[in-house]
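Input sequence (272 aa), recorded before submission:
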Amino acid sequence: MNLKGLLPSKQYTESFWTPFTMDIPGEPVLCNFGNDSQLREDAPLCIIPTQDTDSVKDPANTLEKPNVMTHWIDLLTGAGAKILLMHGRYFDNLTELSDNLKSGIDQFELWQKRVDGVIDYVIDHKLNQKGKTVFMGSSRHGFGVLAGTSRNLKIDAAVVIGPVIWWPSLKECAGMDNNPLILKNDIFKLVENIPPRPLQVQLGYADVRIGQHNNDRLSQILSSIYRSKNIEQNFQNTSMEIPGHSGGPPMHINETVITFLRKTGFLKENNA
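Predicted structure, token format:
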């Protein structure tokens, strides 16, 4: 697997990345573990799910395509974090997801079992023995991160960009507002279980794909919850300056992830 030259960070070398298969209950998970002997022992582990179908054949392919996630990885490695990429087809086919939900197949529960298995594997195999765990995702995986964090207290913090919030707002799931599985996985209610853990959300504006009203409502709910618990410092809502959903945030917005993780004690100013 050749990872050299894929991204500008000097961390992207064969010695930094270790590909392996995580054997957990259900379907095994293909992973890349990014670690360096020079990192602090208490460096956080940032777990980032991917849905690049090519990564099922070769996880390195995920890193070849510059996007929100690769910008994250570049910044996080430079700031002294360990990375765990978990590859797989979780929410890539929305038509299939919609059909499954209509048929009573709870794909969100399957996702949660995958998340729980990965977190337990990380703990059991001491991949992050002294550091804390940060779960990170964008768009559909942003939903997965919010839901996964709300239901797994072993996750220490979460960061999401442009998360899917209410599935019926997507054209593929239109008209499914009363679907029992969607109601069971209502993110507006699930996020109540995330505090007091640190959470950063990066929401777009004029996002017709997700629904701007959903972004605004989620922001209001989270702000209210953290404020009521007197832990406003553990929540940050950063508005993206690029309209829409798929454009992704500019680099200075990505850099707020580093600032937030330092402010909440997950990253240190001095990496060594």
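Checked by second reader. Residues 107-124 form the longest helix (18 residues).
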